[in-house]
Every structure is written in structure tokens, then in C-alpha cells.
Specification:
204 residues; mainly alpha; 3-stranded parallel beta sheet; two-stranded parallel ribbon; 57% helix; globular
Length: 204
């Protein structure tokens, strides 16, 4: 069983702030975000006018496309966070820094340990490193218990690549313009010339 991809705040803000939520859902299908991530997106939408549209998208997008995962302290979530962070979940939730990506990965790990194959959508470097580490741990567990699932990582660049391959981005110019809008919001993205998005076979 493959659950919905679980998205972090960064890519969600990029797509929602630029009114490209339809492109996102057309490419990845229905998504999920932890409650912490939804709150972070709403907070940033109020704090920065560049992200103003995010709140409106969150208010109107139906649950069939975007599910909010509760971050209540359950035994399963608490166990994952305790192992990763070395502190109880209830205590970790008092510190906002990197909490969203931690909860994305924690929810994904809980699902994977139950046998599901989970995609996480994270751009932040620290989050990607943690996701890769947890993916390797799950691979090791599979050697002992074949019933364990897996965790895979996708980034904004990979999603845009897939969108182009599916015909959701019309041409190279449209990709350049879209990526430029994303970089205006997120300076953590590399220049488009380093992304590979202008060299896709679909453009030839």
C-alpha cells in the first residue's frame, strides 16, 4: 500500500504562493502535510507578503487533495522522535526550528514501519540528509523483516522534472519562468542552469 506523499513547508509554500497547486497535485496526486507543517505555512503566509496566497490555498483546497496529519503525541510518533532527536516528542514540539521536516519524516517512518512505501517531499538540506538516513535504516530492517516498507525522497526539482515529462509545463521558457518564481521565494534552490530542468529530453 502506498499512502499519500508527505510534504514539508518549503515546497508547499513555493507551489501555493505562486498559484501552482494544480500543477503540484496533477504531478504528485493527493498529498498530506503534518499539522505542524500546515501551521508553519499559515504563519509564514501572514508574516511575508510574498507568501500571502498560501493561506488562501490552504483554506480552499479540499481534503481529497490535501490531508492534515495530526501531530498528537502517540506512542509510535514519540518513539521515532525519541530515537532521532534523543528527547521526548512533547518537549521537542516546544522548539519550532526544523520541527516541520522532523514531523514529515516521523510520520513517514511510522507508516513505513507498518509496511507502506512512503514518499517525502523535502527541499531543506538537513531534512534530505535525515530522510536519506532513515531510508537506509528501513532498508536494513527489510533484511530482517521483509514486511517493512520504504521511504523515498522527492524535491522540487524532481517534481518539476516529472511535471515536464507528464506535459504539465508547456516549454522550456515556461519552465524557466516558473523556476524563477520559485527561486524568488526560496534562495535555497540552485540556479536553473544547475537544475537540469532546461536540458530535459522532452524539450528536444
Amino acid at each position: 500500500m502506498t499512502p499519500r506523499p508527505i510534504m514539508d513547508a518549503g515546497p508547499g509554500i513555493n507551489f501555493f504562493a505562486t498559484h501552482k497547486e494544480r500543477l503540484l497535485f496533477a504531478t504528485l496526486g493527493p498529498l498530506a502535510v503534518p499539522e505542524t507543517v500546515e501551521q508553519e505555512m499559515r504563519r509564514k503566509s501572514k508574516q511575508d507578503r510574498r507568501f500571502e496566497a498560501v493561506q488562501n490555498v490552504l483554506n480552499k483546497v479540499p481534503t481529497r487533495l490535501l490531508e492534515i496529519l495530526p501531530d498528537d503525541v502517540t506512542d509510535e510518533l514519540a518513539s521515532v522522535v525519541q530515537r532521532i532527536e534523543g528527547i521526548p516528542l512533547a518537549l521537542r514540539q516546544r522548539t519550532a526550528k526544523d520541527l516541520g521536516e522532523l514531523m514529515v519524516i516521523a510520520h513517514a517512518v511510522v507508516a513505513a514501519e507498518k509496511g507502506q512505501h512512503v514518499l517525502v517531499f523535502i527541499d531543506d538540506g538537513g531534512g534530505r540528509t535525515l530522510a536519506a538516513r532513515e531510508a537506509r535504516r528501513l532498508q536494513r530492517l527489510q533484511l530482517i523483516n521483509p514486511g517493512v516498507g520504504s521511504l523515498a525522497l522527492v524535491t522540487t526539482i524532481k517534481v518539476l522534472n516529472e511535471a515536464a515529462m507528464k506535459g504539465h509545463v508547456s516549454d522550456k521558457r515556461a519552465m524557466r519562468d516558473l523556476y524563477g518564481k520559485f527561486r524568488d521565494l526560496d534562495d535555497g534552490l540552485p540556479p536553473v542552469s544547475e537544475s537540469g530542468l532546461l536540458d530535459l529530453p522532452v524539450w528536444t
